[in-house]
């Protein structure tokens, strides 16, 4: 496997971009057959290289659970491609729209058209899924696409570049290099749409750069996603599901439950149950192949700092395994860690954790939990556990988040018919399934005048015609 991504110099990137723009402006939009062919080739990029992708991603992480790459990357992509392939004909069909009364008889249609050239900037945490899932929507909508992978996943980036180039013309779908100067220049290219998945901090920079070109952006950002445990919840069940949601990809998941709010009297019992579930799922051996490493030493040290800060400020640290085993660090695996009785002043409650560290906080009432969530940035995801439907509906009505899974974690993300996207600081816009097709299309309203309608009545000389029409409309409204 070639570990170093072949570099695409900045000048060459700009030339490729210009060539894509030219073709998108001078050639007819790709028809259904051409788009289905592109989706089939994208599927083949994944299917023909699955094992190589697993290994490349694992090399980037130090160790990435092969099963987790399957569950969260390749399976997701197959499901999205299958859905788009089946639905594309109906998505592409012009939609009939009712005509406003006074313009009858006439026809309205909403016609989807490709925007042109779409840019995708992706993070390292699910590098295959987060580069290609937006590309599925963009290609289905008939666009040309350029992908900029993360510099923290160089093995993956090199492999993606090679395998995409083997199946796509450079003016259909292109993967850039990962040099710093490419990242910065990329967001300044006048794309017809730009998708950025990554941190809120870099998202601001990307939105600023895109704004200078009036390039519309979809920002898929991060943040602190809460899990609320209602008094009516089955603690054992909630503990199992939260342990899984948190430890998948060792917590390096944008929608991982970042912290848990638990009724005060259940705090200790719940934390113990999560610890037991973590131990049951991932054991105590750092060499466990199911448990993924932290992406870099810098990220590892940041997590150590968060735990040390919480301990120093008086939180109780609970771990399913002995954390002083040097093999944790030598495998760059972070021992799963619960921070019991975390408080808002701790660093772990002030930044997105993005690792297998779970603060558990006591709440006095459901209203207290809702107020805690609402005092912070709007999260990317929210999880609610319990059996009391009225309490559930109250929490759903009173909080705003990118998405919600009730009585589990993560799964709203994997629904092909639902939009995926954040709100406020956790993002803007959405994709997946038809939502992606629409994001990457210009939905063009077209009004077809009929020879029978009396629109000429609106033209001058006005005389008393408009006054009569206004009277009629007032009467009918
Ligand atoms: N909402 C989602 O769907 C989603 C999914 C995965 C990850 N995330 C978030 O991503 C973050 C982790 O990923 P990360 O560490 O790779 O994020 P990051 O913001 O550091 O980097 C993301 C991408 O932006 C590029 N980049 C960096 N500086 C840039 C600049 N000035 N201009 C243009 N591009 C630039 C990077 O090279 C990388 O490709 C977390 O906050 C996580 O929550 C969100």
UniProtKB/TrEMBL annotation:
<dbReference type="InterPro" id="IPR015590">
    <property type="entry name" value="Aldehyde_DH_dom"/>
</dbReference>
<comment type="similarity">
    <text>Belongs to the aldehyde dehydrogenase family.</text>
</comment>
<protein>
    <recommendedName>
        <fullName>Aldehyde dehydrogenase</fullName>
    </recommendedName>
</protein>
<dbReference type="InterPro" id="IPR029510">
    <property type="entry name" value="Ald_DH_CS_GLU"/>
</dbReference>
<dbReference type="GO" id="GO:0006081">
    <property type="term" value="P:aldehyde metabolic process"/>
</dbReference>
<dbReference type="InterPro" id="IPR016163">
    <property type="entry name" value="Ald_DH_C"/>
</dbReference>
<dbReference type="GO" id="GO:0005737">
    <property type="term" value="C:cytoplasm"/>
</dbReference>
<dbReference type="InterPro" id="IPR016160">
    <property type="entry name" value="Ald_DH_CS_CYS"/>
</dbReference>
<keyword id="KW-0560">Oxidoreductase</keyword>
<feature type="active site">
    <location>
        <position position="220"/>
    </location>
</feature>
<dbReference type="Pfam" id="PF00171">
    <property type="entry name" value="Aldedh"/>
</dbReference>
<dbReference type="GO" id="GO:0004029">
    <property type="term" value="F:aldehyde dehydrogenase (NAD+) activity"/>
</dbReference>
<dbReference type="InterPro" id="IPR016162">
    <property type="entry name" value="Ald_DH_N"/>
</dbReference>
<dbReference type="InterPro" id="IPR016161">
    <property type="entry name" value="Ald_DH/histidinol_DH"/>
</dbReference>
<feature type="active site">
    <location>
        <position position="254"/>
    </location>
</feature>
<dbReference type="InterPro" id="IPR012394">
    <property type="entry name" value="Aldehyde_DH_NAD(P)"/>
</dbReference>
<keyword id="KW-0520">NAD</keyword>
<feature type="domain" description="Aldehyde dehydrogenase">
    <location>
        <begin position="32"/>
        <end position="445"/>
    </location>
</feature>
